[in-house]
Structure formats: C-alpha cells, structure tokens
Amino acid sequence: MQMPEPDAGVIGRRRELIAALRAIVPGEGVIADNAELGAYESDGLTAYRQRPLVVVLPETVAQVSAVLAYCHAHGVKVVPRGAGTSLSGGALPLADGVLLGLSKFNRILDLDYDNRCAVVQPGVTNLAITNAVSHRGFYYAPDPSSQIACSIGGNVAENSGGVHCLKYGMTTNNLLGVELVLMTGEVVRLGGKHLDPAALDLLGVICGSEGLLGVVTEVTVRILQSPETQRALLLGFREVEAAGACVAQVIAEGIIPAAMEMMDRPAIHAAEAFVNVGYPLDVDALLIVELDGPPAEVDHLIEVVRGIGVACGACTVQLSNSEAERKAFWAGRKAAFPAVGRISPDYYCMDGTIPRRALPQVLQRIRELSESYGLGVANVFHAGDGNLHPMVLYDANIPGQLEEAEAFGSDILTLCVEVGGVLTGEHGVGVEKRDLMEVQFGPADLEQQQRLKCAFDDQGLLNPGKVFPQLCRCAELGRMHIHRGQVRFPELDRF
C-alpha cells in the first residue's frame, strides 16, 4: 500500500508551518513533539502507521477556517480526524500533512424537541446524543458498535450504520444539515432543520465523502421518539445456511425488524466468553432479531418471527421478557469485536455488503477461503441488509501473515462485488479498499468521482491518497484525450 510521495519542500518548511499554526491556534492547540505525535500515527486500522508532520486541534470554526485557508495558500495537505475509530484507514496521517483533529468540538449546541432534531459539534460521540435526549423519550437511531467512542463527525464522513440501520437507516437517512469548511477556508451550510431543499443533494454528497471534500464543524441530526416496546429473540441454527434462509423469509413476509444480526460459531463463542450473557454454544449461527413498536404489534410479530425461525430449523429459541434481558442479548453482539481480540493476537475486520439471497453462497466461499489461506475467520454482520463484517484472524508477529490476511480480505471484498454487492457498507474505502475500487467501478465512474472531488478541492489537498486508486490532478482530468490524432466521438461539435 503506497501513499503519495511526501513533498520535501513542505517538510523543509515545518518550523515555519508550526509557527503559523500556533499563531492561529494558540496555547496547547498545536502538537509538534515527535513522541506526542505517536498518539496520532494511526486510526482503527492499526496495520498502517505514519506520524503526521504536525497535529492541530482547533476549538472554533474561525480557527478551522484559518488553518485550511493557510494550508490552501501554501500547498499543504490536510487530513481531518475525528475520534480515530475508522477501520479503513480514513484518518491515516501523511508525513507532509497537517492532521486536523476535531476532538475539541464536543458540545451539544441545541436540542429541538418540537422539530425532533439535535444540533451538535462533530466531536460529540454517537451515544452522547441518545444520552442527552433519552430523559424526554427520544434517541438517535444509528448505533455503530463503537458508539461509545466514535464521533458524529466521523459518522458523517463514513455514513456509519449500526445494528438498527435495517429499519431506521444509516447516517445519511438521519442527517438534516451540516456546517462545512472548504479547503479554501470558506464556511458553507447545507441543509438544516427544514425539510429537504429542492436543489442539488449536496448533503448526500458530503455524507460518506470520507473527509475528501471539506471539514464538518456542525451537524444537525434527526432524533426519534423511543418506541413503546422493544423485544428481542435469539434463534440458534445448526447450519449458517438455515439462518440465512430465515433472514430472507422474515423480510419476504413483509416484516422489517428494528434489527436483525447474525454471528457464526467462532464469534458466538468469543462473545459468550467475554460477556457471559447465555448465548447457546452448540449452534453454528445465531440470529438476534429485535421488534419494536406498540406492545400488541410487537408481541404478534415476535411470535411470527419465532414461527419462521422454527420452520427454518432453529434449534434454540429465547425471548427477552425484560429490558435487562433484551440489553443482555445485545451486549454480546456489541462486544463482538473486542471479544474476538481475546482469541487472536490480531484480526483484520472487513466490511462488504451483499444481496441477502447471496448470504449462504458467500459464507460458504469464506469458509473455503479460510481453509485455503490457513487463517481463521469470525463472522459478525447486519444480516437484514447484507452488511458483512468478517474478522480475519492472524498474528502480525509471524512474517507474511499480515499480507495473507490482506489478500484474504481482498478476496472477500471481490466476492461481494461478484455476487452483486459493494465494497463497503459503512466503514468507508479509506486506504484499506482504495486499490479495489477498480473492481467495482470503471474508469469513467472513477473519473467522474474525481471531478466531484476537484469541484470542492481544486488542489487535491484534503485527505489525499484515500479512496481513489490513482489520484489525478484536477487539471489532468480536464484535458482532452487524443489517440492517433483523433479525439473521442469526433462526430460531435467542439466548443
């Protein structure tokens, strides 16, 4: 994995850059000591590390604007960073770049219950929004497993989801507006508390843009009224294929659960050993299905789903009969990632999305790949919408195993595209999937995406080296291609 060649000229001006940044962000807002920079050398994708040239931690929008304007004027690259929980290397620093941390933007600015929205700064954690409104009977629906730590700005950058995204959508479905600082330092607002504007969907462009288009300094999100009742059930299956068939049948019946998650045997055993919530250990697949709404509806649908599960071969059925029991069911699923960390020195967490109908086929192929590579794998995924999170188990201390794990992961993601899926569901492309983009997109698609990038960032200074397998300069994208003296489509008039 190669990053853009560091600019020796910028590195040579490091002292000058640090002095300029300290003038903009005084006090302890600029980190330049080499030892202290080590805390920022990677994000959640710890296989890749690079210490930044300097870290700046602004506290105001005016400071963010001034930092970006200075870097734009002097040709300095900038990598925005939230909580650093990204699993795709989206916040991987650059040796010749400024790491712009938004951790000090951690205030909730407005809770508007009448309009059912909250206005927060990007450093506010995902779970903090729900905690702030729960006393009034509201909550924020997207709930990634890292919600206790991940920031809402990072959720916007990656279009994060969570276990309840099946019914309530991803970040983009719950995002109403943002304040955005462009690379030039210009501050713009997109959306807000009002209904969707009738113009271009620029808010949809920003959500999931992975820090390539601008730096988000304020976020307006939709909050929902908490459901009257929430109940969950555990369905254990002897075969993963039977669990996949159950997922398809539930959706086919027109039932949209609040959440529908699946874990395979290695993940079940790891989670149970970690949290001891009573998961069955004699099954190959475990479904957690949650229904919410009015009590009568929930009780009815729980019985319907239970019947579907039994008909599909469920050998274990457990219903939650209290809120504590429901939370216990989810405790293992939420802790699955750290739980797997206890059974393997290292693991490589993937993120791909497939059509639900392809679930049995893909899981069988993952097992075959596991045997071929000689590496274990634990599967945890959002079964309802086909978002897979295979965790490839390896030991980085064994020479060559990291490379094998990456190759295994690439094969899984390529398989996702082959069966009609996509490379990522919520973790983003970053550097992890960057060189696989050509598996899903053709040259024309990638060029069009890069033109959009150039419209926001004309010098390509924001988070370069991410997403695009080969980043062209904006001027190069505008050039006319001539082959053997002929332009493309010569019959068309040129203006």
TrEMBL record:
Its cofactor is FAD. Gene3D superfamilies: 3.30.465.10, 3.30.70.2740, Vanillyl-alcohol Oxidase, Chain A, domain 4. GO terms for molecular function: FAD binding; oxidoreductase activity. Keywords: FAD, Flavoprotein, Oxidoreductase. SUPFAM superfamilies: FAD-binding/transporter-associated domain-like, FAD-linked oxidases, C-terminal domain. Pfam families: FAD-oxidase_C, FAD_binding_4. InterPro entries: FAD-bd_oxidored_4_C, FAD-bd_PCMH, FAD-bd_PCMH-like_sf, FAD-bd_PCMH_sub2, FAD-linked_Oxase-like_C, FAD-linked_OxidoTrans_Type4, Oxid_FAD_bind_N, Vanillyl_alc_oxidase_C-sub2. This is FAD-binding oxidoreductase. It comes from Phenylobacterium hankyongense. The lineage of its organism: Bacteria, Pseudomonadati, Pseudomonadota, Alphaproteobacteria, Caulobacterales.
